[in-house]
């Protein structure tokens, strides 16, 4: 079958979109008044006797005054609290499902046995509670947790089932003198983009969004549009999480100031890296040190999604599929930062010269090389798959598909008839099929490439090192140990399998959630 290109993919979906009667006039375009940045509640496991409880529930959230949206959240109506666990502790988790449909909760970046991972093999049915017990044995890092139920991950995450998970290593933090006062000089930032119709949150079930992944034109930070953070006039630590379904954020500051990038997905880098901009793909995290001692206000900005062709974004906007256009096709401020006087007698904080010594694995110890290709259009693009999906999707004139839809309505397959459009090495995901078997403790090299567009690739149960891109040394953005990597060209990953997957498998997948749900996922067990 002929490979799908970005341009052919767009042409194949534009006609379907126009025929669907998508109406731009009802999309939200009202200016949003600034509001204080919400800081998620911090729940520290040690203060709870190393027992943490989450309750997944449905609710109503007003992202704009007077316009409440149907949403989901943990311990609330949207998103969840920040959980903090500690190196060396054993933690008991309780996840209760108070929703009418099944869910699952994945601890993204946390290294635990597969049966505690919270992937699609650990569903939590309505009214039940899942109780994994985990031993924390990895370096301190900014991690996160999110819904990962088979068949409805994309919608549940989009509607709000996500939160930040901080793994603390107090001794290391103290030695380095890093900012550590939560919500003051150590600030969590959950970045998401959303679509709104008449001010209410919409999850579109339309082939263009399914193929590209759902991207919206309103950027939320911790669930708020146009927020303002007051920060100390000194060194501030920003913990960034890309919690979007598909968008890559191209981040910088409005005044062009430099910052120091100090941590990636799996924790601290060896040395701070001075930068002016940073890409953050879905699922990735980054920690920045930003100096506000000059007292000048600035704004965190995002450019257009750098992984989408400019012409493609323009055509999407003309169809009215972008809502407020600024974050989609031009740089836009997403968070204002206003320094305030430092605490009286507060000692100055400096950027350390060195951070950690990473324990690297020798690539020569790799016992196997595998090739994985993230494929699109493998089973039906040319066979009327999208037209069939449109017929079953229930598109209404003037609407973005069926909007939020009923809880548990599904999306891929049940909603759009598009399961099988995506795969790995040409095979769409099957829950009962084990795709790979690896030997516990082995090191392997995985060569990962993708079709048609860049794909953020995530492996459960491991941290890995990027060895190369397109046969050349990795880029500056590939530093540190990672669990998610943006695949724009062929990448080589050095992976060591130190966590067991015997009683259940681990999965690996594209972290464009619509791609994952459409079949771009596989799974492995250890022996």
Keywords:
globular, 6-stranded mixed sheet, 8-stranded mixed sheet, Immunoglobulin-like
Brief overview:
Helix content is 12%, strand content 38%. It is mainly β. The radius of gyration is 22 Å and the shape is globular.
Helix content percent band: 10-25%
User: What summary fits the major beta sheet?
Assistant: 8 strands, mixed
CA-CA gap between termini: 35 Å
Please report the number of helical segments. Answer: 8
Low-confidence stretches: 6-27, 310-326, 378-417
Structural class given helices, strands, pairing? mainly beta
CATH architecture grouping of the domain at 363-526: Sandwich
CATH class of the domain at 363-526: Mainly Beta
The total strand number stands at 34
Describe what this molecule looks like in 3D:
By secondary structure, this protein is mostly beta strands. It has a domain of 164 residues: Immunoglobulin-like, CATH 2.60.40.420. It contains eight helices and 34 strands. Strands 12, 13, 14, 15, 17, 19, 20 and 22 form an eight-stranded mixed beta sheet that branches. Strands 1-16-24-23-18-21 form a six-stranded mixed beta sheet. Strands 2-5-11-10-7 form a five-stranded mixed beta sheet. A hairpin with a 2-residue loop joins strand 19 and strand 20. About 15% of the residues have low confidence.
